[in-house]
C-alpha cells in the first residue's frame, strides 16, 4: 500500500512547512499499521477495523512511543516491530516533526537559524536506493530535497550533501565522509536527525563496529555545533530514530542512543500485531554422513518444487539461499522441475522481458517463470526482475539471504533453503535474527490475510531453539 502525503505541491522552492501534514494526519493515512485492510474491510482476526485501530493506538500510547502521539517530543526512539507493521512511518513522522519544530523556531526567533539536515542510514545499498526513490517521489513536491550518497552514486558527495536536506546513505559511506568532519564542520553539524534502519546490524561482526563508530562520531559532531538557543546557550541533542524487525534488546540499544535527557524511548511490537498472520513450518531432511554441506544444499533443489506446490497457493514465492552461485543453480533446477508459466499470454510477457536482460542464464530461467537476485546481477536486470516479481508476473524469485535486509519484495510464501551459510572459511548456522528477517518477508498486506514461511534444514537441526522460534507448525520429511 503506497503511503501518500495528501498535500498540494508548494509554490516556493523552499520546504512549504505550512502545508506539511500533521502527525495525526499521517497516522490516519498509514493504514499499513493495522493488522488488516482498510475502508470497512474486515481484519484478519475478524475484528472491526476501528476496534483494531483503537486497540493498537491504546497499546502504543501506553508504551509511550512519542513520534505519533506527542507533538512536542524530540526524544530519540528505538522501535522493534514485525515486517510490514509501519517502521518506515515512524521515521517519516520524525522528519515531519523536525520540519514543524524548525518552523516554530523561526516564528519564535528569526530566520537566521542554521540549516538542519536529516541522514538516513541502511546497511544495504539496495534498501537505500528503494527508500530514496520512494521519498524522492513523495517528498520532493513539498520542496524537501533528497540525495542518495552511496558507492554506486557518481557525483561530488559533499556538494550533493550541501544542497540536500535529506541524505540517504550506508553506515560505511557515512563513516568515510565524517572521518575528516572538521574540514567541513558546519555541514556535518547541521545534521539534527539520524534515522537508522535495520539497527540490528549492530550484532554483525563486520558492520556493527562501523555503525557504532558513526553514531559516536555524530554525537561528538553535534555537541560541537554553535549554540542556537539564546536562553539556555545549549545545542539541542542529535535525535536518533532506530528501527528493526528483529532486534531483541531494544532497551540496550535505547541506552546506547542516550543523551543528557536519558536513554531513548524503546518500544517493541509483538508478533500478534503483524499485519498478515504468519505460519512458520520447519521441514527436516536426512543428510548422509558422507555428504558435505554443499551436497546437502544441492539435494534440497530437488525438494523445492514440492514445497512450493504445497504452500504457495499459486502466489509469489521468495526462496532464500546463502550464495550467489546457489541462486543460479536453484533457479536452473526449479525451472526444469516445475511448470510456472500460466498460459500463452504469460509466456509472451516473460519472453519479452527476458529478451531485454543482459544475463544469459537469467534470461533462460525468467522465460520459465523463475528469477534470481543477488548483488552481482546487473542493476538494470535486477530492476526488471523486481518489477516482474512485485507485479506477480514472476512466480518464483531466488535470492541471496542478504535481500532480507535489502529491497522490499514481500511474497506470499518464503522458503529458506538450508539454514547454514559459508562465513569466514567455514559453514555456520543462520542466527535467529537472520531467520526472522527472512521469514518476515512473507505476507503482502495489500493482498494477503495470511502467509507461510518454510524452513528447510537438516533433520538433526529441526528442533534447535534458533530454528523453532515461534514456530506455529512443524512438519518432518525424510529422504
TrEMBL record:
Residue ranges occupied by any Helicase ATP-binding domain in the UniProt entry: 68-265
Write down the SMART domains for this protein, in alphabetical order.
Answer: DEXDc, HELICc
The record's keywords, sorted A to Z, are: ATP-binding, Helicase, Hydrolase, Isomerase, Meiosis, Nucleotide-binding
- Catalysed conversion reaction: Couples ATP hydrolysis with the unwinding of duplex DNA by translocating in the 3'-5' direction; ATP + H2O = ADP + phosphate + H(+)
User: Its Gene Ontology molecular function terms?
Assistant: 3'-5' DNA helicase activity; ATP binding; hydrolase activity; nucleic acid binding
Name the Gene3D superfamilies for this protein. P-loop containing nucleotide triphosphate hydrolases (3.40.50.300)
UniProt-listed InterPro entries: DEAD/DEAH_box_helicase_dom, Helicase_ATP-bd, Helicase_C-like, Meiotic_Crossover_Helicase, P-loop_NTPase
Where do the Helicase C-terminal domain residues begin and end? 303-479
GO terms in the biological process aspect are: reciprocal meiotic recombination
* Record-listed E.C. numbers: 5.6.2.4
Q: Which PANTHER family match?
A: HELICASE FOR MEIOSIS 1, HFM1, ATP DEPENDENT DNA HELICASE HOMOLOG
Q: Which family is this sequence assigned to?
A: Belongs to the helicase family. SKI2 subfamily.
Its recorded name reads: DNA 3'-5' helicase
Biological source species: Petrolisthes cinctipes (Flat porcelain crab)
Amino acid at each position: 500500500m503506497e503511503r501518500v502525503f495528501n498535500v498540494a505541491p508548494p509554490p516556493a522552492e523552499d520546504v512549504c512547512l505550512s502545508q506539511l501534514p500533521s502527525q495525526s494526519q499521517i497516522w490516519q493515512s498509514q493504514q499499513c499499521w493495522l493488522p488488516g485492510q482498510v475502508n470497512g474491510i474486515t481484519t484478519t482476526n475478524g475484528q472491526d477495523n476501528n476496534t483494531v485501530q483503537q486497540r493498537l493506538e491504546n497499546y502504543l500510547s501506553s508504551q509511550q512511543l512519542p513520534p505519533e502521539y506527542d507533538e512536542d517530543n524530540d526524544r530519540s526512539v528505538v522501535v522493534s516491530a514485525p515486517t510490514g507493521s509501519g517502521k518506515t512511518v515512524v521515521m517519516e513522522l520524525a522528519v515531519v516533526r523536525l520540519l514543524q519544530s524548525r518552523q516554530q523556531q523561526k516564528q519564535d526567533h528569526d530566520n537566521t537559524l542554521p540549516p538542519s539536515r536529516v541522514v538516513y542510514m541502511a546497511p544495504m545499498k539496495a534498501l537505500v536506493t528503494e527508500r530514496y526513490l520512494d521519498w524522492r517521489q513523495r517528498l520532493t513536491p513539498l520542496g524537501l530535497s533528497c540525495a542518495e550518497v552511496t558507492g554506486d552514486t557518481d557525483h561530488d558527495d559533499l556538494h550533493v550533501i550541501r544542497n540536500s536536506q535529506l541524505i540517504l546513505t550506508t553506515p560505511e559511506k557515512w563513516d568515510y565522509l565524517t572521518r575528516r568532519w572538521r574540514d567541513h564542520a558546519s555541514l556535518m553539524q547541521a545534521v539534527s536527525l539520524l534515522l537508522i534502519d535495520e539497527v540490528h546490524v549492530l550484532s554483525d561482526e563486520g558492520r556493527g563496529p562501523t555503525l557504532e563508530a558513526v553514531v559516536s562520531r555524530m554525537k561528538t559532531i553535534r555537541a560541537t555545533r554553535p549554540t542556537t538557543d539564546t536562553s539556555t546557550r545549549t545545542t539541542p541533542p542529535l535525535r536518533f530514530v532506530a528501527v528493526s524487525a528483529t532486534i531483541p534488546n531494544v532497551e540496550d540499544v535505547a541506552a546506547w542512543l542516550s543523551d543528557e535527557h536519558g536513554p531513548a524511548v524503546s518500544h517493541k511490537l509483538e508478533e500478534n500485531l503483524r499485519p498478515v498472520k504468519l505460519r512458520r513450518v520447519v521441514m527436516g531432511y536426512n543428510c548422509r554422513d558422507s555428504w558435505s554441506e554443499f551436497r546437502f544444499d544441492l539435494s534440497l533443489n530437488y525438494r523445492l518444487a514440492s514445497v512450493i506446490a504445497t504452500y504457495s497457493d499459486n502466489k509469489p514465492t521468495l526462496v532464500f539461499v546463502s550464495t550467489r552461485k546457489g541462486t543460479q543453480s536453484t533457479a536452473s533446477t526449479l525451472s526444469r522441475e516445475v511448470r510456472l508459466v500460466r498460459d500463452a499470454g504469460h509466456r509472451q510477457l516473460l519472453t519479452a522481458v527476458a529478451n531485454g536482460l543482459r544475463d544469459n542464464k537469467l534470461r533462460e530461467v525468467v522465460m520459465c517463470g523463475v528469477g534470481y537476485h543477488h548483488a552481482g546481477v546487473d542493476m538494470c536486470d535486477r530492476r526488471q526482475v523486481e518489477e516482474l516479481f512485485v507485479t506477480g508476473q514472476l512466480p518464483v524469485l531466488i535470492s541471496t539471504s542478504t535481500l532480507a535486509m535489502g529491497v522490499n519484495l514481500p511474497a506470499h510464501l518464503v522458503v529458506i533453503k538450508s539454514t547454514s551459510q559459508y562465513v569466514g572459511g567455514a559453514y555456520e548456522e543462520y542466527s535467529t535474527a537472520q531467520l526472522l528477517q527472512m521469514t518476515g518477508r512473507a505476507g503482502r498486506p495489500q493482498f494477503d490475510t495470511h502467509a507461510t514461511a518454510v524452513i528447510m534444514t537438516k533433520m538433526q537441526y529441526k528442533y534447535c531453539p534458533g530454528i523453532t522460534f515461534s514456530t506455529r507448525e512443524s512438519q518432518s520429511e525424510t529422504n
